[in-house]
Structures are given as structure tokens and as C-alpha cells.
Amino acid sequence: MVGVLGGGQLGSMFAVAARRLGYRVAVWDQDADVPALKIADLPVAAPFADPTALNRFAGSVSAVTYEWENIPVALGEALEQRLAVRPASRILRILQNRVEQKQFLASHNIPVATFRPIAAPSDLRAAAESIGFPCLCKTATHGYDGKGQWRLAGAQDLASVQEQLGKQAHSPWVLEQFLAFDKELSVLVVRGADGDKRVYPTVENVHEAGILRTSRAPAEIDPRLAQRAGDLAASVVAALEGVGVFCVELFLMPDGGLFVNEVAPRPHNSGHYTLDACTVSQFEQQVRAVCGLPLGEVRLLCPAVMVNLIGEDLTKVSAGEGLANLFRQPGAKLHLYGKKSVRPGRKMGHVTFLAEKPAQAWESAETLRRVLRCP
Ligand SMILES: Nc1ncnc2c1ncn2[C@@H]1O[C@H](COP(=O)(O)OP(=O)(O)OP(=O)(O)O)[C@@H](O)[C@H]1O
Ligand SMILES: [Mg+2]
Question: Is residue 165 part of a domain?
Fold first, then answer.
């Protein structure tokens, strides 16, 4: 049996991939009402600090992974005493804190935006003055989907952001230079226990209000640039010596320069297109890497564009003939996550559009984006 910590959509997609390869799956989540617990062979709904749950889970599985980086490092370490945790808790510790992550990357000569750690709100002014405006203050831990971020356009924003930081449950923070990028890119890198690696095609992402809206595979960029992005992402994962699936988010600057925004030690929303458009999906690769199987091919079989269904989007696509039209549309693949309720900003599902030509996939995605009234 193979185990996954976290039972949201990423845990579910891992469980489905593991099942297909013949594994039984244990899922551990703190919330009893998450999708992956419903399809687990061994569902564990208990706090991550619960020692009875730890014994039950660790006693049943032979390898463990996780669907997000915010699981307690102490849990990863406790599991590691008894079995393989992939990626290792050492990597969780580096990546779950933006300050440590950026320091790690910078110390390995990986380009990142200029940054300063912010231990207390009173550190903000000096840090902003040394970086310059505009800049962005982010919570060092527990941030996702652009939550826990404050943009400072100029010195006039210092007081209000300082006040906001004073009210936050999580500290510290990191202040970073705001980069006026041309495009956002991401690259999935898979690395096996034997050091074997696979690099998926470079993908181009569009965010709205800090949340991923659309991913386009392959990115519409010069192939040499796409290769450079893939090489940079692979060098990040090599530096981490990580085993598993990693997503490296990148900023492409107008002069062709690349900066690493952040690294996730798990499959990523921008890699969902691999479920329908690649020989082996990111989730199957996660199973293979975690279980020590040979890694799979990362070939893109056809161009693909993925559109996220966020919050009320689900209501909009479900209205009238919406879903029927989607089912009728050639190349459209609907994925719904089975979440209990719709909440603003919550990822409810996604649609991947496959086509022979990139422009056709983009055109199909545009039709959906119009229904969703994406800006
Ligand atoms: N330094 C920056 N300069 C310009 N834009 C930025 C910068 N950092 C982040 N952003 C924008 O905000 C988005 C979210 O930021 P980031 O990836 O750091 O946060 P997150 O909450 O971890 O997001 P996610 O969970 O979606 O990966 C980025 O994809 C990008 O669009
Ligand atoms: Mg991000």
C-alpha cells in the first residue's frame, strides 16, 4: 500500500493513478470531508499530530508522498523513521518556507527576485528602501493561490501593509522585488531515487487575482528558450537532490532572462494537462518515483490548454446547455473534483482542451473563458 498526506484533488488524482498501477492507497487528511478519503483503501481522518493515526498509517504503507508542502515537517520526519517519504522531509523544510527556499536557490546560483527576510512588521521600511518599489510582501509559510501577499507600489503603502502584517496569524514574511515579467512559465521535473530525471515541456500560465486561470502546453515561446527553462528547472531539482515530482514556476523577463518564482515538491495545477495530453501523467510519475519504479515518458501527444473552474465558474458552466456543450465539444476533457461546496476562489475542477494545432486548443479554451467571463 502507498500513502499520501492530504486528500484534496491532487491527493485524489494520485490515488487514482496508484490504483490503476495496482496499488492500494492510504490517504491521511485532517478534514474528514475531502474527496480522496472517499476513494481510499485506508482513509485516515485525524489531526496530523495524532500518534494513533501515525501508527495506523505508517504500519500500513511502504512509501509515502504528499499533495502539498504545508504538512508538518515533524510528521514527515516521524514517518521517515519507519519508511520512505518522497520527497524527503529535508526538502519539505526548505520549500515550505519562502525565505529558506529563496536562500537555498540563491546559494545554488539559481536566479530569484531580490528579496529580504521580514521577521517583524517594523523590518518592512528598511527592506523596501533597499529593494526599491514596487515590491511584494509574502507570508513565508502557508501561502497559496496568491493569499498572504501585499503589493507595495510606493512608500505611501508602507504603513497600511505594516498594519496588515501586524494582524496576521502567520509570520515571518519575505519582501521581494516585483518583476514586470513578459510571461509566467512552469516546468514539471520528475526525479527518481537513482537520479534518473524527466523534464516535461515548458508550459505558459496566466493568473487572475493570484490564482492560476489557464495553462498552455507547449508555451508559445522560442524552442531554445523553452529548453533553457527546462534546463533551469532541472538544475533546481538536481540541487535539491529531490525524489518525486517537482514544479518550478518561472518568470520570463522582456530581455529573455528567467527567474525562479517558487518550487513545489509535488504535482501542480499547471501540470494537469499531462493527465490528458502526455504519455504518462504527473500523477503516475509521482507514483512511479515514490514506489521506485522506472520513470515514464513525458511526451506531449498534442497541444493542450487547461482552464481552471474556480468558485462560481462551476455554476456558470453548469447553467443551461453549458455542460452539454462542453461534452459535445471535440477535444474537451472535463475534470470535477467533487468538493462539498462552492466557495469563492476555490478550485472546483478544470477543463483541458486538446487539438491538433495550438491555435485550435486556444480557440476552444477562449470559448469557455467567454462563458466564464474571464478578463
Ligand atoms: N515577485 C513577483 N513579481 C511579480 N509578480 C509576482 C511576484 N511574485 C508573485 N507574483 C504573482 O503572483 C502569483 C502568485 O505568487 P506565488 O506563486 O508566489 O504565490 P502562491 O500563493 O504560492 O501561488 P500558487 O499557490 O498559485 O503557486 C504569481 O504566479 C505571479 O503571478
Ligand atoms: Mg505560485
Answer: yes
